[in-house]
Amino acid sequence: MIDRQQKILQLLDTSGPRLHRLLARLTRREDVIGDLLQELFIRLWNSGTFDKADDPFAYAYRTAINLAFEWRRRQHVACQPVEGDYPPAQENSSALGKMIQAEELEQVLDATSRLTDLARDVVVMRYIEQDSYEEIAERLGKKPQHMRSVCAKAMAQLREVLIREKV
Amino acid sequence: MSEMDEREIKRRFEVISQFEPSPEVAARDLERARERLIEQTTEKQTKQQDMWRIIMKTKSFKIAAAAIVVIAVSLGIHELVGIPGSPSVAWADVIKPILNARTASLDILIGSPDGEVVIHDDVMGSRIRRTVSNLENSNILIDLEQQKLVTIDHDKKTVMYLGLDGLPDLKNYVELLRNTIIRLQENPNLQVENRGVQEVDGRDYVVFVAHGDTDTITIWADPQTALPMRIEHETPNMQTVCDNLKFDVEFDEALFSTEVPDGYTTQDVGAVDFSESSESAFVESLRIWAEIIEDGQFPDSISFEDIAKIGPKFEKGLERAGLTEQEQTDIAIQWGQGLVFIRFFKGQGQYHYAGQGVKLGDGDSPIFWYQPQDSDTWRVIYGDLRVEDVAPENLPNSK
């Protein structure tokens, strides 16, 4: 038990900042990241499967993605723009421009949440975390070529969803 | 609006990818996560080690109170139906092999998978023959149709009956298990993830993980037969595992008999009614808790794990109150009855408890509040045990 506690605390020390940043990007709400990070590590602690995972970080990373998108599904109201450090909105840094950008980002994240788990994870790793296909493949135990194919199909689906919703 | 092509989607992702939470927020959140993890894991280790030892080894702890805790855990499979949760075609196969099963056997583990106490259930129709690894020389027979729990103590040669009134749809436990999985499958909100084949102890299993708001269910199924072999249910406070699931096992029917063996004496200790998970019963439990168990003040916690540790303190309180044996049993059942309200909580969201340090009679301190189903207002219980309807904006601050 003590060893297990140490293992999870060590994961928090080494990978906590990255998982925190991932949650921040997927929720865009600084006021909820802390709670989700706590929930993530409690989930890992309570999980029997985590102990059997070959790559604890990869397991935690996928759990964090799940957690963030579960949170998004629970949100029935529009998210407020995050108060963190986003780059200026494209070609428009006015309040209206920021609102439009915030809405655009919400739409693409919400559309991502409707992908299959695998497609969603790959898209997040590739485009939000900007991992290479080789890194993604290693983390998910798949082949890079497969990841490239999943990603291409996911992008096509995202485009369809976003066009259908007339954004 | 932007023209929607792949380039635009990538542009949006790129904006998202550039977000960095402020260092202060990150440092604060990481520290809090660390504190919570240490608190939770240390607490859980202690609680798991103590919980069943205390329930089962406190021999004189009132069977009625102990039984309700055992029952609440062992029938915890009911709680799976409450998990919000999309059907999965592959997952649907898990149910098929048990559609016609008449009997089953399973182990129930509370806490970590390597927990020290294992409850073993043999199930035949409406009867469950239960053995608990650290409760030697005793058998528990649960007759769901008769709604009775029968404890046979072979050391003392006694048979104790506890009524389990108001348990719905429990004619057949295997059917219950099956219906629970079907209801989960039919729940449109359930998100089921197929984790593929994983090896456990040299055997391959197909693993499915279903996530609810706070709960996670993991099912390990045989890749050939799709038979579920293990079901793990994790909640923020507890982990329950149904392991070594077997169906259509040949049992000797005599093992499920509730007949009193020759030379044994019987005792009927009353009943716990599971349909009466009422607020008023819970208020009565709080009164007993403060008045008898905690000697004038409300408990620090009403978590299930803490309830499980209450045995010795309850014993002392009952002695202190100078009650007769029958009165002690009645009080124990009354107190246990109120637990149904929080164990199978049916209100919206979560309830809140803030009774730590509050004395019985303190009408200014709210100790418990919850939002009933279909209600816009909340019910708040105060230290003098009066209950008021309160608008959300006037609720106490949750700790």
Secondary-structure blueprint:
The complex is a heterodimer of chains A (167) and B (399).
Chain A: H1 2-27, H2 30-46, H3 48-52, H4 56-74, H5 95-113, H6 117-128, H7 133-140, H8 144-164
Helix pairs in contact in A: 1-2, 1-4, 2-4, 5-8, 6-8, 7-8
Chain B: H1 6-17, H2 23-57, H3 63-74, H4 89-92, E1 103-110, E2 118-124, E3 127-132, E4 138-143, E5 148-153, E6 158-165, H5 173-186, E7 191-200, E8 203-211, E9 216-221, E10 228-234, E11 239-247, E12 265-273, H6 279-293, H7 304-308, H8 311-320, H9 325-343, E13 348-353, E14 366-371, E15 378-382, E16 387-390
Parallel strand pairs in B: 6-12
Antiparallel strand pairs in B: 1-2, 1-11, 2-3, 3-4, 4-5, 5-6, 7-8, 8-9, 9-10, 10-11, 13-14, 14-15, 15-16
Describe the structure.
The complex is a heterodimer of chains A (167) and B (399). Chain A has 167 residues and is mostly helical. Chain A has two domains: 1-83, Rna Polymerase Sigma Factor, Chain: A (Orthogonal Bundle); 91-167, Orthogonal Bundle (Arc Repressor Mutant, subunit A). Chain A contains eight helices and no strands. Chain A has helices at 2-27, 30-46, 48-52, 56-74, 95-113, 117-128, 133-140, 144-164. Chain A is globular. The N and C termini of chain A lie far apart (51 Å). The model of chain A is unreliable at 76-86 (pLDDT under 50). By secondary structure, chain B is of the alpha+beta class. Chain B has two domains: 51-256, Clam (outer membrane lipoprotein receptor (LolB), chain A), CATH 2.50.20; 276-394, no CATH class. A twelve-stranded mixed beta sheet of chain B has the order 7-8-9-10-11-1-2-3-4-5-6-12, with helices on one face. In chain B, strands 13-14-15-16 form a four-stranded antiparallel beta sheet, with no helix packed on it. In chain B, helix 3 (63-74) runs parallel beside helix 9 (325-343) and helix 6 crosses helix 9 (325-343). Mean pLDDT of chain B is 73; it is low at 46-66 and 72-89. At the A-B interface, helix 1, helix 2, helix 3, helix 4 and helix 5 of A face helix 1, helix 2, strand 7 and strand 8 of B.
